[in-house]
Amino acid sequence: MSMRIVRTIPELRALLKALREGGSRIGFVPTMGYLHEGHASLIRQSTARCDHTVVSIFVNPTQFGPAEDLAKYPRDLERDQVLCQKHGATVLFLPEPSEIYPTGFSTFVEPGELGQVLCGAFRPGHFRGVATVVTKLFNIVQPDLAFFGQKDLQQTVVIRRVVRDLNLPVDIVVAPTVREADGLALSSRNAYLSPEDRQRATALSRGLLAADAAFRAGEQSVAALLALAQKELGEVDELQYLELVDAHTLERTADPIARTVALCVAAKVGTTRLIDNVLLTPDPEAVQFLSHLDAD
């Protein structure tokens, strides 16, 4: 089946209803476009585990603040279509903002405390927009599985909580962060970086990976791990946060590290805001953690 491009909710629902009635398992990869290898890895995972894969491209206005980059967010729809087709997507959903937020729209999903810490402290309302649009997309697509990347760890924690709290019938799969050869986490916003800033941006991954290496070698002190990461972050222009948090609850962790924690960073390099994280996972959690991020 060649990839179908769909722009309206009724058309998408009719198409997926037919596939579902035929016994198909539906996978879903929601994106904001300007796709890269990280997105491609999610599409490939979906096509490996599901009969049909829906990819959405929607630059969601409700998750951008008034002074943020909605208007200039990078877009390349032609390239995105080629990538989706290449990696096996069945359906590409390309709604207009008016399709998702019709006139008079006024209902939002509030993610609570999870949306107010880390990035939420610097982007008020961001995770309300994320929780709302993802809930809407889940209701539209009704997937069996939905695929997200670990780079946006806080987003995945918020979405898992929304799915749990609202009893949404979808399983969330979190895939490892995809990185460049020099360690920089793939991100659509990397396109904003000048060559010089691109090089300085590797400070984020260097700091995280230095702490990760120390943890693997036996370092258990939260203060020591944060100090190791901090040491590498001198090249950034503004360090917004560097936190070691429980990967399930996003609460700050303390010694000893007894369960999976996430070392998370957000920083500006030039005018570009970047985020990254690594998971520090004591055995025996390591093998299954990403697929069970909401486990007790």
Low-pLDDT runs: none
Range of helix content? 25-40%
Question: Terminal Cα separation, in Å?
Answer: 40 Å
H-E string: EHEHEHEHHHEHEHHHEEE
Describe the structure.
The chain is built from 10 helices and 9 strands. Strands 1-4-3-2-5-6 form a 6-stranded parallel beta sheet, sandwiched between helices. Strands 7-8-9 form a 3-stranded antiparallel beta sheet. Strand 2, helix 2 and strand 3 form a beta-alpha-beta unit. Helix 9 runs antiparallel to helix 10. It is globular. The model has no long low-confidence stretch (mean pLDDT 95).
List keywords for this structure.
2 domains; Rossmann fold; alpha/beta; 296 residues; 9 strands; three-stranded antiparallel sheet
Topology:
Blueprint: E1 4-6, H1 9-21, E2 26-31, H2 37-49, E3 52-57, H3 77-86, E4 91-93, H4 97-100, H5 119-122, H6 126-141, E5 145-149, H7 153-165, E6 171-175, H8 195-200, H9 202-216, H10 222-231, E7 238-246, E8 261-269, E9 272-280
Parallel strand pairs: 1-4, 2-3, 2-5, 3-4, 5-6
Antiparallel strand pairs: 7-8, 8-9
Give a concise summary.
By secondary structure, the chain is of the alpha/beta class. It is built from ten helices and nine strands. The chain is globular, with a radius of gyration of 19 Å.
